[in-house]
Design goal:
PUA_sf; alpha/beta; eight-stranded mixed beta sheet; Carbamate kinase; Glu/AcGlu_kinase; 17 strands
Length: 385
Amino acid sequence: MHRLFLLRWLKIAVSQTIVVKIGTSSLTQGSTGTLALATLGNLVETLSSLRQQGQRLVLVSSGAVGVGCQRLGLTERPQNLATRQAVAAVGQGRLMRLYDDLFSVLGQPIAQVLLTREDLSERHRYMNILNTLTELLHLGIIPIVNENDTVAVEELRFGDNDTLSALLASLLGANWLILLTDVDRLYASDPRHDPQAQPIPLVNRVADLESLGVRVGTAGSGWGTGGMVTKITAARMATAAGVRTVITEGQQPQHLHKILAGELIGTHFLPHPQPVRARKRWLTHGLVPVGRLVVDAGAVRAIQTQGKSLLAAGIVAVEGEFPAQSAVQVVSGAGEEIARGLVNYNSDELRQIQGCRSEAIAERLGYGGPETVIHRDNLGVMEIT
């Protein structure tokens, strides 16, 4: 009896939450855009095996537009938004059918979850997504997540599934975020153009990459939307939430077993030793800002180093039109975003009180209001680079 309890405890102890993202470049073959069925089958077999070992898995899968293009005989990715949405609607169903067929052979249940940026920017929807995903994982199901390209508009898009996967890893408090891509690891320059490019196996802090001379391209393959820049951004978001992040080759998904066993395959980004709290992560990365507040150097120091609220006295400019309780960016005079949060005043009120002391707000507006423009509890501070 004691041995049975110990075995169950050990299984729980080693069980981890792992978010795996695979890009279009790994799911398709070169310039043709046809599905790489061998890679797809290998991925499904690997994830099913990990699930049988007790791991909790979320798969963020690109490929809907690419599969839709193949289905419709298109030779390149559509640039027009309406056409791209229509093609995604065709491809998403086909992609999920392939996943369902392959996972079903191995007896592994899956679920489809389609998200837009708006789903994560509203707090109650954010929590509903967390509850749904948590229950799916509890039931032993592998959620397959993608951006809902069919309905997402440009201003409410994640832009790429690297960002989406990092947000989900942060949301779930995952142990690992593994980004499967078309290169085997991060290099100091693009290995496709520089044969002398030096590999980078381990990154302690994303901010250290600049000192290593890292130069990365901004575009991915012709069928995808991401590049190495978006993966580094995703690594910054995930590691700040305490999630170990790995960039590795998508055509070798079986390497996931070795990576989780401790082998240094690909490029590993170490998690921050003091992760940002869940609500602060939502404020920093979940919100979609609708305006900007430019602040002086004193406000920058107070927010970044002292963890203080933003006061009207520190604001030098207000950009955009928005109501109270909207999400805004807080930027320095040089234009660097230092924080993101929910304002207590609308944009017109802020223009009236910018630069004034808190006790003078009532006189300026003709009525009383909060002493803070953004209270520190509603202010998410960006990582200092």
